[in-house]
Amino acid sequence: MAELKRFYNMFQPTHYDIFLDIDRESKKITGKTTITGTAKEQNISIHQKDLEILSVQLDGQSLPFEIDNENDALKIDLEKTGDVKLSIVYDAQLTDTMMGIYPSYYTVDGVKKQIIGTQFETNFARQAFPCIDEPEAKATFDIALKFDEHPGEITLSNMPEIRVVDGIHYFDTTVRMSTYLVAFAFGELQSKQTTTKSGVKIGVFATKAHRPSELDFGLDIAKRSIEFYEDFYQTPYPLPHSWQLALPDFSAGAMENWGLVTYREAYLLLDPENTALDMKQLVATVIAHELAHQWFGDLVTMKWWDDLWLNESFANMMEYVAVDALEPSWRIWETFQTSEVPAALQRDATDGVQSVHVNVENPAEIDALFDGAIVYAKGSRMLVMVRALIGDDALRAGLKNYFAAHQFSNATGADLWSALGDAAGIDVGAIMNSWLEQPGYPVVTASVVNGQLVLQQQQFFIGKGEEVGRQWQIPLNSNYAKAPTILAEKKVELGNYAALRESAGTPFRLNVGNNSHFIVRYDDTLLTDLLNDADSLDDISRLQLLQDLRLLAEGKQVSYVAVIPLLLKFADSHSAVVNTVLYQVAGNLKKFVTPDSEQEKNLQDFFNKLSAPQVARLGWQRKANESNDDQLTRPYVLNAALYAKNAAAIAVAHDLFTANSTNLASLPADIRVLVLRNEVKNFGNSRLFDDLLEAYRTTSDASYKADINSALTSTNDLELIARLITKFKDAETIKPQDLRAWFRGVLSNEDGQQAAWDWLRDDWDWLEKTVGGDMEFTTFITVIAGVFRTAERLAEFKKFFEPKLETPGLKREITMDIKVIESRVELIEREKEAVNKMIASIVE
Ligand code: BES
Ligand code: ZN
Q1: Same domain, 381 and 453
Q2: Chain-centre distance of CA 38, in angstroms?
Q3: Is the CB of 121 under 6 A from ligand 1?
Q4: What is the CATH number of the domain that holds 353?
Q5: Same domain, 81 and 132
Q6: Neighbour count for residue 573 (Cβ, 10 Å)
Q7: Distances 177 to 94, 117, 129, 137, 801 between C-alpha atoms, Å
Q8: What is the pLDDT of residue 808?
């Protein structure tokens, strides 16, 4: 792509006066934007997209202008440089794409309604007002809004409303900020509000389709998060309020607009009486993530989009730091280990993956380059590694200086490394660059060779990978003092193994705590020693053993057969992390069996064996005062029992359904999905299907919606599947934001796979039009690659997607996904006999 000239180099705005008149009925917007700033050149460009520019005035005089749609530009010859004031009058449109200024649709008591909201990151502010739409172009904003208002509506923006004159809502001048963080919204909203210790007003806003109690949890977390960050960052929250707004239609998960954070309803609102603990944890981490950005991202912003990872990786780490402080009993770092860590390790093992830091010139490339597993999961793991290296005191001291030096301005990754490095007294940048600038990660092989304990690093691949000699600076975190803190070489010898083992008195370990981004391959001597001692391993170590072995098996470095005994060994654990990873790994065995075969029957028996004692221990109903671990473990073991077609489990689930059939939403939230799925699968009929679909359309509880989605997509009735698929394009039933989850559900259902795959191929153009231009789009391909496992599907996948390699933004995803499926097909071919034999021998 041609190198783009940054508009900020030509013109540097200092202040915007924005007036927008929005007519929801006709979807028309008329706008006037006055920009004050300094022209560095006579010929300047200002961003605009899909705006109809009516006039441009310079200091009160009309000027000719030119529209360059290719570059999203309005071009003006100022005939001078220096300080100028430009007034631009224009028409625009409400979009229906969840980008720019867009309506969200919802229903209250059968009446259809909408609220208007905004989404400007990464580069959609230019669809709302002409601006220098680059993160470095920080300015202050005065926003004034008029709309076809009726009584009872509320108007929100980054700053408080200061007056309403002639139906125009005026908001207070913002602090100096980037355009992508500007936001506003209006409609019939309810709210709950409180105030932090330091006097910041906190609010949660939602449509009136929700019960007021659904706002309480978010309000409490938001308040305490702001208090936590003010203390942790030692930097005050600089705005008078922090509003959290739930929007019924939302493309991303949430967005950190300064002072007016927007969320998917599912990530802000919840029923405090009946929501599963993991869902509460998810909502809390999302809120903590966005509020971490209020400083890291909003107060100090990346200079350019190539450092978007810095924003996101950092917020992704801080969400755990904050929630751990707010709710220590949740042990939220364990969730980091079962969600971010495996996501990063899996994705980063495919050759062709991007590095965390990628150069990007054209903002249109940014969305295409946005790989969540890398930018969020791997990036946050990098920062967790830094935090483990320097400790919290240095982290806080470094951040305080970083905020003080760059507040209301911009910074780069290097600025952060130097702030943290100065505070810690080590060269953080040197260590980090090997992780940020290179894709992939190493497997460290630990082996005893001629009596010597030897460590060696090499890039780890799942599927075909080209060895190009990459090396990393690896924080080893060994339990043997002889191992270096950082392994920078390809290979080191630690000395005589017998002597080291003798003096340590415990098996050799690497990556204790699992905070560094690498996996370990112990040779037989070391692994046997470790496993003999398995009873004394803590939960994270058990998780790590299971996770690393599974990855090594996926990478064909060990046999999958080696993983299976460990599942049995840890199956009686009372730890939620161990059980979560255990069933993640066990679930990976499903790919080795053919549906409805003897082998599947054996695998089901194996699942029964794994889960039966825990099912007996935990039962279906929550016990008084039970531990968080038990609450979180229950759904995994019950799910395993249902997969195993355990007759007793099926019967209990059916009874629970029957007993609650008049109010299914009130089933205990943590097992509700299991009960519904069991019913659809084993007792389903067309009426149940219609009832559930109707409940899906009418409920305002996002967790319940997700449960119904999961249940309906699991049906084995082909006619019902066909009916479901007809709903995919019906936004009144399935909102575009939720479509991927429905697609995934049907595709991963053996009986639905063909229909879902046919739908995607037939309706690809529609999909591209509806969710294209949005980073959600490529993830539909990722979903398919996560499911397909046969040579036939691989061939079909290639046939359909290879011709699309040149579609902007799809090349990397398609290329990687072909490798992913290829590798899986080969693995199954190679291992299925041994795996199935092993399973058979266990269940006989
Ligand atoms: N700033 C992002 C959302 C975003 C990123 C929008 C890039 C447009 C381009 C926001 O802070 C975020 O990370 N949202 C996450 C949810 C989060 C809790 C992990 C998302 O949308 O997935
Ligand atoms: Zn974020």
Answers
A1: no
A2: 39
A3: yes
A4: 1.10.390.10
A5: yes
A6: 17
A7: 24, 19, 15, 8, 41
A8: 79
From 471, 505, 529, the end of a domain falls on 529
Whole-number Å distance, alpha carbon 60 to ligand 2 midpoint, is 41
**Do the beta carbons of residue 777 and residue 765 sit within 8 Å?**
no
If asked whether residues 144 and 102 sit together in one domain, one would say yes
Domain that holds residue 516: 442-529
Note whether residue 697 is domain-resident. no
The count of domains in the chain is 3
Do residue 121 and residue 41 come from a single domain?
yes
Average pLDDT of the segment spanning 669-680: 98
User: Looking at ligand 1, which residue's alpha carbon is closest to its atom 15?
Assistant: 253
Residue 170 in contact with residue 161, Cβ under 8 Å? yes
Q: How far is CA 331 from CA 208, 292, 710, in A?
A: 34, 19, 27
Average pLDDT over residues 820-840: 97
Per-residue confidence (pLDDT) for residue 2, from 0 to 100: 45
Distance from the alpha carbon of residue 252 to the mean position of ligand 1, in angstroms: 6
Please tell me the distance between residue 110's alpha carbon and the centre of ligand 1 in angstroms: 32
The residue length of the chain stands at: 844
Pairing of strands 161-165, 82-93: unpaired
Beta bridge partners of 154: 187
Residue 838 domain-assigned?
no
Q: Return the closest-CA partner of residue 776 out of 251, 350, 267.
A: 251
* Pair (404, 474) in one structural domain: no
pLDDT digits (tens, 9 = 90+) for 176-206: 999 999 999 999 999 999 999 999 999 999 9
For 89, what's the count of Cα atoms within 13 Å in the CB-facing half-sphere? 8
Q: For residue 418, what are its two tokens?
A: 């130097």
- 195 close to 201: Cβ distance less than 8 angstroms: yes
Active site residue 41: no
Q: Which residue among 256, 290, 319, 334 is the active-site one?
A: 290
Looking at the structure, tell me whether residues 8 and 110 fall in a common domain: yes
Whether 432 maps to a domain, the answer reads: yes
415 and 471 share one domain:
no
Residues 378 and 501 in one domain: no
Residue 123 domain-assigned?
Answer: yes
Q: What letter represents residue 759's amino acid?
A: W
Identify the pLDDT of residue 770: 82
255 Cβ below 6 A of ligand 1: yes
pLDDT at 95: 85
Cis? peptide before 122, omega within 30° of 0:
yes
Q: Is there a binding annotation on residue 776?
A: no
Please report, as a single letter, which amino acid is at residue 779: T
654 is in an annotated binding site: no
Banded pLDDT at 364 (limits 50, 70, 90): low
Q: Residue 133: give its domain's CATH number.
A: 2.60.40.1730
Residue scoring higher pLDDT (96 or 799)? 799
